[in-house]
Amino acid sequence: MKVKVDKTLVASIALHVLVLGWGLVTFSSRAFVPAEESLPIDIISTDQLAQMMSGQKTGDKKEPKPKVEKIAEAKPEEDAVGKVTEKKELIKTNSTPEPPPKPVEKPVEKKPEPPKPVAEAKPKEEPKPPEKKPDPAKEDPIAELQKKLETKKPPPKPPEQKVAAVQPQQVPKPKERSFDPAQIQRDLDKRAATRHELAGSTLNASASLGSTSGTAANNIATWRGAFQGAVKRCFTPTYNGQDADQYEADIDIPMKIDGSLASEPIVVAVRGPSRSIAQAVAESARRAIVQCQVYSFMPKQQYESWKLIPMTFGLKDML
Amino acid sequence: MNRRRFMTLTGSTLAMLGGGQAFAQQPQGRLRIDPTEFRPIPIAITNFVPGSPADGDVGNGVTQVITNNLKRSGLFAPVDQAAFIERISNIDVAPQFENWKTLNAQALVTGRMTRQPDGRLKAEFRLWDVVTGQQLAGQQYFTSPEYWRRIAHIISDQIYEKLTGEKGYFDSRVVFVDETGPKERRVKRLAMMDQDGANVRYLTRGSDLVLTPRFSPNSQEITYMEFGQGDPKVYLFNIETGQREIVGNFPGMTFAPRFSPDGQRVIMSLQQGGNSNLFVMDLRSRSTTRLTDTPAIDTSPSYSPDGARICFESDRGGRSQIYVMAAGGGAAQRISFSKDDNNATYSTPVWSPRGDYIAFTRQGGGQFSIGVMKPDGSGERLLTSGYHNEGPTFSPNGRVLMFFRDPGGSGGPSLFSVDISGRNELKVPTPGFASDPAWSPLLSSTSG
Fold it and tell me: Which of chain A's residues have a Cβ under 8 Å away from the Cβ of B161?
């Protein structure tokens, strides 16, 4: 018995199977793509930003500039990993390894005796290291600085007693130095490697007073946000009626440079349908300003911009 | 993937840049603070110094009532006395404010209770601004010893007004229906108490069922509905004399009465057949005026504070909704429209004494809710929801709502209060079950 097969039916089935199969393979593979993890982004408030950008009173007072310069130079020296280890060995053998990275401090601190021998040695070093391009360039300023030390012997140090106390620890290093052209070359190598290490660790580890040339301290929004946040913490208005958004109190706040109030906050104007409620809002704001002082985080170098702080206290978000 | 991350980062960055730009737009302008979070004012309330050893209890009692009032208001956070550093022994000497600043108190209350030679009590108090060291208020009152609680309420109102700018509501009363006995044979009596639940007085004996009591503006009279022998009628009850009288002489049932703001009229519903309409009766001339004439149930009328408009509930649209119209009648405008439930119904509207809100009971989704909306119907806000909440009444300053809640089952209803923002829901103490509360106006003026 022969079964008649409709060719069109077969073709149709085959076509459907093909299409469905293609669809299953194509779309199912996309469906199994693992869900993408969302990228967590923290939204920080202005006062949090201020906290992050401000320095610490107890921070290290070293100038951050040298560190930045050294990082820039260290980048190309990826091959110098071996040199770093070599230099470490040198450091062990040599009693005066660290002086290079702290040239700026030393000249200021060490004005009297020790620098002389070093200054004598460096002019002799100049002809030898010409092979290494970056090092001589760095060496020159050091030598110059040390020369300056000689000329700066006389300067008095009246108030810097702390600095004087720190000096003795650094003085012995130059004393142990002796002129050795080979060692100078190692020192130069070591200097580059040391910079590389210093740059990596110091920037992250040491506290900072904040950059004087950066934009953080100049950012008016920083102290404005911080001040708003501080006053807001103490502001406890009690009105939340339907017309709360119509109540406002303008208050001028005279400030001292230490962040305390120079005088009582001045209620300039109050607005709202009920004068008694508006007055209560102003009084509540005044209490908040007084209670939350001293605003010691205010940047002193920006004092002129916050000597008198005009504020408006409103209730538009109370409901 | 990368695109999504890019979009996320871009969005965040743009948002931050936008914020920064907004900040930068007014660097020289006024800094602005709009707190979003409500926090009560920390206040220290010291025990009132007794003029003699015999006055110690009443002094402590006054302190306790003031503390309780302010705490229950939700606007104040009384500092625990155990934390006090300084003991006030002479209220005529300025306190050491540093001792109170340490406790973070913003205000300090000191006082003295002294019994006078004529037997009266002299109550003195001072309210201090701890932060600035200024005296904000200082008053003295004389009263009979039995009214010491009222003095405490008046002082509470003074403190409230000085620190919030609004009138207080502590020196006020609440009339309600006291319910006792098993559910099937519940005895309902008219009762009156201070707003904090103290000094309960029963005004009727419970022989007849009473409902919907309302205070007159002078707090001397109460109007309510009583199921007597015939049809239920609206009555007037004089609190001082205990006398009562029927309001009007209508052929059908009268119910849901309420005084006009001037106390000269009573507005109520009168049932005629299957319908009920609103009528107002002048209490002096006893003349009545029909306000609505519809084949529907119009009831629960309430005047606006200026007496120019009334809100009421009506099922003229098919379901019970809230309408507003002129006090003299005329076209009514529906103001209640549920956004999320087309089957929701609104009832028992009450106009706030401040005029800014109309409170209501909303039934929908199997729950009864208490809420407020503006008189134009906008800004609807539900304050509390549950199995059965009903009958809101405003405090004299329009800041707090009281209502009754029935949990169902074999229990009975209780009174609760809640701030108009929905915070600070508290149970109001009553001797037994209680329903249908109505808040009186402020009994005394606290200005000055």
Answer: 276
Q: How far apart are CA B352 and CA B350, in angstroms?
A: 6
Q: B94 to each of A99, B91, B126, B128, how far by Cα in Å?
A: 64, 7, 10, 9
| Cα B16 from Cα A46, distance rounded (Å) | 11
Cα–Cα separations (whole angstroms), residue B75 to A279, B137, B400:
17, 18, 11
Which residues of chain B make contact with A235, given a CB cutoff of 8 A?
A: 33, 35
For chain A, how are helix, strand and coil distributed in percent, rounded to 5? 55, 10, 35
* pTM score: 0.66
Cα angle: A247, vertex A251, A257; to 5 degrees: 150
The answer to whether the beta carbons of residues B174 and B439 sit under 8 Å apart is: yes
CA distance between the termini of chain B: 68
B75 in contact with A, Cβ within 8 Å? yes
Q: Tokens 């920037």 label which residue?
A: A203
- From chain A, the residues in CB contact with B421 under 8 A are 240, 319
Cis omega (within 30 of 0) for bond into A294: yes
A chain contacts of residue B379, beta-carbon cutoff 8 Å: 242
The reply to whether B161 touches chain A by the CB within 8 Å rule is yes
> Distance between CA atoms of B130 and B94, rounded to whole angstroms?
11
From CA A60, how far away is CA A269, in angstroms rounded?
46
Q: The dihedral of CA B127, B129, B133, B137: what is its sign?
A: negative
Q: Is residue B192 classed as helix, strand or coil in its secondary structure?
A: strand
Phi/psi at B387 (5° precision):
-60, -50
Q: How far apart are CA B355 and CA A6, in angstroms?
A: 84
Per-residue pLDDT of chain B (448 residues; tens, 9 = 90+): 344 443 333 333 333 333 333 333 333 578 888 887 778 899 999 999 998 888 888 999 999 999 999 999 989 999 999 999 998 889 999 999 999 999 989 999 999 999 999 989 999 999 999 988 999 999 999 999 999 999 999 999 999 999 999 999 999 999 999 998 887 888 889 999 999 999 999 988 877 788 889 999 888 888 888 887 777 888 889 988 888 888 877 777 778 889 999 999 999 898 887 889 999 999 888 888 999 999 999 999 999 999 999 999 999 999 999 999 999 999 999 999 988 788 899 999 999 999 989 999 999 988 999 999 999 999 899 999 988 999 999 999 999 999 999 988 778 899 999 998 888 899 999 999 999 999 999 988 533 3
Cβ contact A314–B41 (<8 Å): no
Alpha carbon distance B414, B432 (integer Å): 8
Flag whether residue A287 sits within 8 Å of chain B, measured between CB atoms. Answer: yes
Q: Which of A225, A242, A280 sits opposite B164 (nearest CB)?
A: A280
Q: Distance (Å) from the C-alpha of residue A53 to the closest C-alpha of chain B?
A: 16
Name the residue facing B374 among A242, A287, A316 (closest C-beta).
A242
8 Å CB contact of A238 and B36 = no
Spatial contact of B48 and B64, defined as CB atoms under 8 Å apart: no
| A83 membership: H or E segment, kind and range | helix A81-93
Would you say B356 and A243 are in contact if contact means Cβ atoms under 8 Å apart?
yes
Q: How far is A216 from chain B (nearest CA, A)?
A: 14
Distance between CA atoms of residues B374 and A242, nearest Å: 8
Reported in sequence order, the residue ranges of chain A that DSSP labels E, i.e. its strands, are 248-254, 266-271, 308-314
